[in-house]
Amino acid sequence: MHPLKFRPARLAEIARKNRQDILEAGVSRRELIRLGLLTGSGCLIPVRGLSARASCEAGACQPGCSPPTDPFVDPLPIPAVLPERPLTDPGFRIAPAAQPSGQPEDARAEPHQFRDRFPPQQFFISRMRPNPAFRFSESPANLARIPAQTIWGFNLGGASPGDVATTPGPTIVSRYGTPIVVRRFNELVPDDTGFGRTEVSTHLHNFHSGPDSDGGPCDPVFTRFFGTGQFYDYFYTMARAGFDTAEFRASNGDIRETLGTLWYHDHRVDHTAENTYKGLAGFHYVFNEFDTGNENTGFRFPSFPQFDVPLFLADKLFTPEGQICFDPFGFDGIVGDKFVVNGRMQPFFEVQKRRYRFRVLAGGPSRFYQLFLTNPDNPDQSIPFWLIANDGNLLPRPVELTSTRLGVAERMDVIVDFRKIWDRFGHPRRIWLENRLEQVNGRAPTDRILPPGNPANAVLEFRLAGPDIVADGSFDPEPVSYPHVPCGPDDCVFAPICLPRLPSDTAAAPTDRIRLTRSFRFDRTNGQWAVNDRLMDCTRFRFTVQRNTAERWILRNSSGGWQHPLHIHLEEFRIIRRNGRAVSCGDPEFSRKDVLRLGFNDEVEVVTRFRDFRGGYPMHCHNTVHEDHQMMLLWQIQDTGDNLTEP
Questions:
Q1: Of 2, 209, 468, 571, which shows the fewest CB atoms inside 10 Å?
Q2: How far, CA to CA in Å, does 306 sit from each of 49, 167, 352, 379?
Q3: Which CATH superfamily is domain 514-638 in?
Q4: Are 382 and 434 within 8 A, CB to CB?
Q5: 201: β partners
Q6: What CATH number was assigned to the domain covering residues 308-480?
Q7: What is the pLDDT of residue 102?
């Protein structure tokens, strides 16, 4: 039994219970504001003990109130790979159908687009479940302060209670050219944590998927989220974007549109932040004939899984009693005071003296990262690593960096060469992955870079182990990287996965010609987040894009002291200009992207092609607290588009 250091505060317990009652009743934030129970800044009016805690008394949920813990005492957990199921698995079928009485209900109410053209060749099952005995640390000292507790997660697909849910969930591994179906069962139940909605919608961020399988938050016609006792089949063509255009129909898409590092997460409207924070997220890898997962073939990237490692970065808040907590009614965002990687607080990872590929994800809900490699025994050293992919998209040329910034939901694939670190930096036994970007609240980072060598800022400790000489046949990015090698706009180190040609205003082909320019302001309206002064509306699409054409979008931050990581579903985009300055080769943003950081008063120009699928998608801030507080809109793709320039 966990020996509590504090007696639970009665008002804190009442507040938690009331928050959960509100969530389960489905009362929206806008309704709470209208009823006078929620202020424009997101604070609950102090009724029945609902007021925010002002100090670190029992039940407080704010930075600085989590119990102290010891870093680097737990090994880094590596998420398991989700096992494939046979296509003959009982119940697998092509269309939604009624289930026998007492069996889980099929929640899907619409057909999968292009399923006849790309019949599934692989089938996966995963079940969303509570795990009431999840441990953020296995250390006895840490467990005395932060005990085992309830999270929500995904399991390996088994129906037995012994197949427990984990966070992050299992990694799904798929390949281009092999269409798949992922069946997700909802077995969640309400609990006493005070946050989390048991209705779910799982988004594969940012795969080229039809609306039926995109896992969007809501739709004017179809209900995409589903409740306990239901399941939903998500279908992925595993074809590259452009597969239904004249130019690339025969090749099932443009090879230059190849994706690699994806992730999946809950996207239930109004509750994305809390459900993802509670654990409903995981990695999805996509391999191909060039990025093979084997360092002896193709691009020769370090082999999966031993040397190709996912790092899911997150930050959590705990009450002084050690219970994970989340305030669903704060509008700014939430930043935790405990760094968690792959579900463990500040773990360590033993590495050999060779190259590794790390797929790093800023999992949110609100924290930005500025990541460095630091030798804690010589913090003044400047240790390089090599960026090879941004948001799952290979760069035209690797870029050597000593730090890089990530907004929420951004990913970076980096090569870290521990042999070179060993040789060049005095045989260090440990290296920290540090986040040195100061962020004191959910609004935005302060842009202050903190000094190196503080263990409080280390998210992960690498321990250099094993013999000094290790076989390593993987790709060495240094000889071809920028700035060692001058870059150019037509670089393509990883041919044939190059940057697609840019759309223009005068191109002849419809998919290359910019049909329209649209402008979007991300701002605040009556204390809530808005886009072009309008709140999210699940009952209508704001504008219609013409299928198989390109558009230019101008994105402006008009919200004042906040920053927004913006995500556009369905298609990657190219950032053309940031605040009037062209993005050029050598810049990490000189790539295809699916999230962009919209800083203070930024204006960013992007161009995007919209191909293949028809139907509706969202664009939203991926500070998911902002998203849940209405900084989102719905748009659609149809054969005929509109001409709204400021929808």
A1: 468
A2: 50, 20, 10, 28
A3: Cupredoxins -  blue copper proteins (2.60.40.420)
A4: no
A5: none
A6: 2.60.40.420
A7: 57
**3-state SS class at 550:** strand
Global confidence as pTM: 0.91
Are residues 201 and 219 in contact, defined by beta-carbon separation less than 8 angstroms?
A: no
Residue 27 pLDDT greater than 60, yes or no:
no
pLDDT at 206: 85
**521 half-sphere exposure, CB direction, 13 A CA radius:** 10
Helix residue spans in 38-123 (DSSP H): none
Comparing 150-154, 338-342, 378-382, 440-444, which segment has the lowest mean pLDDT?
Answer: 440-444
> φ and ψ at 384, to 5 degrees?
-85, 160
Q: And the tokens for 312?
A: 């899911």
Tell me how far the alpha carbon of residue 502 is from its chain's centroid: 26
Distant-in-sequence contacts of 496-501, Cβ < 8 A, 24+ apart: 496/255, 496/256, 496/290, 497/255, 497/256, 497/258, 497/290, 497/291, 497/394, 498/256, 498/396, 499/256, 499/396, 499/574, 499/591, 499/592, 500/254, 500/256, 500/257, 500/592, 500/609
- The span from the CA of 25 to the CA of 20, in Å, is 8
Give rounded-to-5 percent helix, strand, coil for the chain.
10, 35, 55
Residue 459 confidence (pLDDT): 98
| Same fold: 308-480 with 514-638 | yes
Give the single-character DSSP code of 482: B
Q: What's the pLDDT at 11?
A: 40
* Residue ranges covered by each domain of the chain: 84-125+139-282, 308-480, 514-638
* CATH superfamily to which 84-125+139-282 belongs: Cupredoxins -  blue copper proteins (2.60.40.420)
